[in-house]
Amino acid sequence: MVIEIPECRKCCCCFPLRNGIIVFGYLNLAFSIFILSTEMFIEFETRPHSVAVHRGVIYFSNFWYACILFASDVVFNIVLLVGAHTKNTQLLRAYYYYGLTTTLLCLVTFIILRTEQLFDQVSFYIIEACFVLSSIGIQGYLILLVRSQLLKMHQRSRICYVNHAAEIIVDIPEQVENTDVENSTLIDASRK
Asked: Whole-angstrom Cα distance, residue 66 to residue 71?
């Protein structure tokens, strides 16, 4: 079974694709820096373990693990911005793979962590599932935009050849005057 992944021509149906990626990149960068600084400020003073929220998934982990996740988000958002500004396909592809991997890992982590505690607090998990799905949806849209930009840049960079041998000029032969047989069939066809 073949599934075609849609290709976006514009971001949010109105912005140019590259500009939309840049706006999403700056918003992601600002949010990642805010979360990283908040996490460091709150948890550094209190205890070595923390409750972290990464892409909507809430989990209990070591302080250093959460900081590494948020720092990697900051670094790869900078990679996205530099790649989008300079039209560098390698940087955009690196972010594409990073975003795809971390988004899938967050989804799997959410499913694994919450299936064993599903019926304890149902309303809390419904709200958390909404946060996770909206976060994954936004991240998935950004990944789709980056993929569309990569395809667009690949199509523009291809070398096209024109086959001049296929452009053949054909001379149309002159018409021969009607013979008696053709005239009789024309007369018979007009009588009917």
From this structure: 9
